[in-house]
Amino acid sequence: MIIRRVTMDDLEEVVNLESAAFKMTKEQTKNDMMGRIENYPDTFLVAQEDGKVIGHIFGPAFNKRYIEDELYFENHPNQKDDRYQMVLSLAVLPEYRKQGVATKLIEAMTQEARKQNRQAISLTCLPKLIKFYEKRGLHNEGKTSDDIPDPTGVTSVNMIRAL
Of 21, 62, 145, 161, which cross-links 91 as Cys (Cβ 3.0–4.6 Å)? Predict the structure, then answer.
């Protein structure tokens, strides 16, 4: 398995992965992914095995500690002075889960964030995923205060990993 930066050639595979993982339409997902690939390809990483994308992690850099709604809907390029590396999505194909792919993607994003002099990795997750992220060095900083989209109605929490 290799982890590398995304390219537009990966578009179809990342759309399929993201739309399946988060129950979104492929049409909307395709528009979102195109904007993300164009605006922050350096922090959109894919895991690939035998020529197939099996997982991805992505998000923009941002100057605020926690994810805000605007990051899901407005893609903007990473800026040199942004202090935080956001993770908007971490997804792995079902048949490759529990094999360390997600952990390797988190570590690769951490290394990229360090190279770009970010202060921390920031993401939101559902309470059922807190232990997963804590095992990977992130700390629970409490419930989100922004209106993060959540289809189940469960309040997400902010998770941070200082770099």
Answer: 21
Alpha helices by DSSP H, listed for 23-100, are 26-39, 70-73
Decide: 95 and 101 in contact? Cβ < 8 Å: no
DSSP code at position 128: G
CB contact at 8 A, 73 and 148: no
Q: 3-state DSSP call for residue 64?
A: coil
> For residue 90, which of 105, 100, 75 has the smallest C-alpha distance?
105
Model confidence pTM above 0.90: yes
Single-letter amino acid code for the residue at 121? I
Q: pLDDT digit string (tens) for 42-56?
A: 999 999 999 999 999
Name the token pair of 63. 């100057």
Residue with tokens 């970010």: 118
What is the chain's Cα-based Rg? 15
